[in-house]
Specification:
Length: 335
Amino acid sequence: MDIRSRAPVRLSFAGGGTDVSPYCEEHGGCVVSATLSKYAWGSLSLRRDKSILLDDIRFGSLKLNSLRDIRYDGNLDLLKAVLNHFKPESGVGLFLRNDVQPRSGLGSSASAFLSIIGLFNHLKGEMKLTDYEIAELAYDLERNELGNRGGRQDQYASVFGGLNYIEFKGDDFVRVNPIRIKKDYILELEKNLILVYAMDRSVSGDVIDDQTKSYVKNKRDVVEALHQSKALAMEVNYALRKGDFNRFGELLHEGWEAKKKFSPLISNSHIDRLYEIARKNGAMGGKITGAGGGGHMFFYCEPNKEDHVAQKLSEAGARVVNFSFDFEGLQSWEI
């Protein structure tokens, strides 16, 4: 028997950054996000011996004689961390493939963690973890076990799937509120949104570290920008529920202006140029996804202007990425 899994990446519309400590503990945070039809895919096979075979399509393969050989050395550490937690009694073969590249700004590392966790959780039968427990475990392994900085929104968005308003109130208190809107609104949102890959970036932790240090130092612009970002997320939630997409586009633009104040590392001349091109050709608003500094950008466009915006961005060096929304979240199955 083999186990398969998939976990979607996410697109954060508003509130990103307010889910990062210590802001969320001190003030509470919230985000609005949707999951996309781009996935981390996992496979697990049980072996008769104790050996462990790890295979990541992007980062290569590794064979270990047993769990005792696990060392965090930068080589497939994500797979090792999940193995270290579940400690399977038999040997295993693990395979991971991600539809988006690392440091994409779409939460690909969280979806990868969740996909592998989902494989082992599938084997637990009636003792399976809840969606909240799975998300919190993925957060703990990535942030604490491996020391990768970031917030909690990626893990919760990917597990639950769909369009959500997610609240963070410190420590491990998280509430996921599905945004239930008409299918017509979902289709309109999908039609008028475009997603592009802007440029490669370094590790997102650099941006998050700079944002956190500025917040801890109580830099006024950063603190006020985080407060504004949280308020905008609440407004985006309301605009989507009403189907007020003109206001949604305006809020995205306001959110981008606020986000750039978190850290000077969030944007650069190339990103600013792409944003300006999009706005001049029919985009109402948009922003960089994730921590910033590179990766993907998305834009909400005036009706029937999306193709023109995409063409102009392509001419400027961006790569248009086709997508649809995912409403299933983490899935696992056996063959």
